[in-house]
């Protein structure tokens, strides 16, 4: 391996490039939404709760690809910020999640910044390349969803 360059070993590998793009994506998201003190995971949870009012925590975790323990902490932080409220479902153990008016307003206020972040992440691509890249990412993610530690599943199928 003496004559193999770092480009051959690392810099042109999908795993490395995906990790770097995720690092860049988080940085850009946080820059564009800094005034709201909300992480990408919190934003995703809020967006899913908005899309599926009264979703339970397990289905929320499945909808955005996070394990139960992680989503539990996310929901606790969102509730502490007054952005989400929990109510008891028909099964007393099930907690249903909904946005508070403050949570809905925050999503609305953050949206322009999240759109700017998405545009910045894809900087360097033409509009046609952006559409192709997104479709390709979707195909790769869908093809590998089931091997993920937490496969994503749409609440629409389950609720």
TrEMBL record:
Give this protein's Gene Ontology molecular function annotations. Answer: DNA-binding transcription factor activity
User: What SMART domains does this protein's entry cite?
Assistant: HTH_MARR
Q: Where are the transmembrane segments?
A: none
Superkingdom, taxonomy of origin: Bacteria
Q: Which residues form the HTH marR-type domain?
A: 1-142
Q: What is this protein called?
A: Transcriptional regulator
Question: Which InterPro entries does the UniProt entry name for this protein?
Answer: HTH_MarR-typ (IPR000835), MarR/SlyA-like (IPR039422), WH-like_DNA-bd_sf (IPR036388), WH_DNA-bd_sf (IPR036390)
- One Pfam match, given by its short name, reads MarR_2
Q: Tell me which Gene Ontology terms the entry assigns under biological process.
A: response to stress
């Amino acid at each position: 391996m003496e004559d193999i360059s770092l480009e051959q070993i690392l810099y042109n590998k999908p795993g490395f490039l995906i990790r770097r793009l995720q690092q860049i994506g988080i940085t850009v998201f946080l820059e564009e939404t800094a005034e709201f003190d909300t992480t990408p995971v919190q934003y995703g949870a809020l967006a899913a709760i908005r899309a599926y009012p009264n979703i339970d925590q397990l289905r929320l975790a499945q909808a955005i690809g996070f394990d139960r323990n992680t989503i539990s902490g996310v929901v606790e932080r969102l509730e502490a910020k007054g952005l989400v409220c929990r109510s008891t479902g028909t099964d007393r153990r099930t907690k249903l999640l909904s946005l508070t008016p403050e949570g809905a307003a925050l999503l609305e206020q953050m949206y322009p910044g999240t759109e700017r972040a998405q545009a910045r992440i894809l900087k360097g691509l033409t509009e046609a390349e952006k559409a192709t890249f997104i479709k390709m990412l979707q195909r790769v993610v869908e093809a590998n969803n089931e091997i993920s530690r937490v496969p994503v599943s749409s609440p629409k199928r389950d609720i």
